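Lab notes, practical 5.
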Amino acid sequence: MILAVILAAGDSSRFKRQKLIMVYEGKPLLQWSIDVLRGFDFDKVLIVSKSLDLSTVDTADFEIVVNPDAHLGLSTSVKLAVSVAKGYEGLLLLLGDMPRIGKALVERVVSMDQTKIVFPIHKGIKGFPVFLPSLYFEEVKTLTGDVGLREIIAKHEDETIWFNGGEDCIFDVDTPKDFY
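Output from the prediction step:
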């Protein structure tokens, strides 16, 4: 059983408004991640958000979990996802601002050995999605600040599987110019 999670609680500090509901290539930025996960039969799909107005996004069949501590960094959203994942074999993590992650990339990650941490890379940069087995859930609870899983991945390098995922696995929308 896999819990798929879209992390969408960032504060969009370079924007004057929440970037995840801004239209990117025809639909709200967050909708891209939602739509790719709709093509799968995950046991549960979760969006970890802060105070995002999701009225322009189709979140039907997705559970929304509010992260009241999002201002303390990405680690709080990952820890919140882990707290919901009790009983699951692992988490599949995506970021809400990465519109180029497609079905094939998700399929490749979830088809690999689920006893390992699995992720794509591009030119030596860790990308998304990331599969995290439940074996590491307790360790996630020790993370602090604005870090994702880098520390855990570095510590358990021998327990990872990575592959070349192409540029799409690292492309994210960070600044207003990325919308144009």
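Observations recorded by the TA: Residues 74-84 form the longest helix (11 residues). Helices lie at 29-38, 74-84, 103-111, 137-140, 150-155.
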